[in-house]
Model the fold of this input.
Amino acid sequence: MIKKSGVGILRRGGRLFFVAPVLLIFWLSLFLTACTVEVSSMPPVETTPGSVKMLFVQEKPQALVLPPTPTNTPVPTPTAAPTATPFPTLTPVPTATPAPTATPIPTATPYPTATPYPSATPFPSATPLPTTTPTPFETAILTRAADNLGNLNTMHFVLEIRQGKVNLSGAELKRAEGDLKSPDNYQASVRLKILFGEVTVKIVALGGVQQMTDPITGRWTKSTPAETLNLAGMLDRRTGFGPVLKNLQNVRLVGSELLNNATVYHVQGSASPAQVEQLTFGNLHQAATVDAWVGQDDGQLHQLHLKENAPGNGFWALAFSAFNEPVEVRQ
Done:
């Protein structure tokens, strides 16, 4: 039995019957037929004031109209579930082809044993540099004077031959005084000793060419190589006095002195025969003792004495002044 909207529905043999509504309608029809009262028509009744008129009206019975029998709504046939699509048959995985057997790698031919490099010859031990000996004070003085000589353009000089003989144009040179101008110009007044006394001549060198006046006539003549003094060579940086001063041996400081109102250092050293020739323009050839007087303020060579060590030989004395003062060299 299933209840739906208050109506009982009986289901038998697949058919449906609506029972309750039909029975209800049937019983109501019988009840109304038995209870029908025929009411006759009655004349109007007069009423007195205050009375109540009652009118009975006989109702005409109406035929009972039964509602239409509802049509049974057929139960929809349940839709069959769609047939499931069968899963596709799995394609069997192909059997893996076995990998080919790897060809064995041939045994590597061993590299020939490397010939060992010959042992490197060790570098010779470096000869240690000699320990620098501090420059002695007196050597520093001479070095300073030599450098200043090489940087001079002009200077005044006095040369005296105090001992020994120096030949010049058949006479004996005793003294020369003049001016030097670098690199190869000079002028000087020269005193010569001849048979009957002493004479003075003049010499001038321009561009290295020396001329000299005749002692008797006073005329200018070109000097021969034997008569050329080459006084300008004293200032030469390679062959002049400077290189000799730097290389004197047995250098010592004699002391501090006053020379021509200038305070100077007196330094002494030994010169070799070659150095002596360089200092005397090739006129002296023996080892000598050299004394130099160097200004304490200007570092210039103010005086130089050269005396050969052999007794009775040459002795030269030179003095220098007027450093870098203007000079005009002319005949």
The helical segments are 20-34, 137-150, 241-246, 273-279.
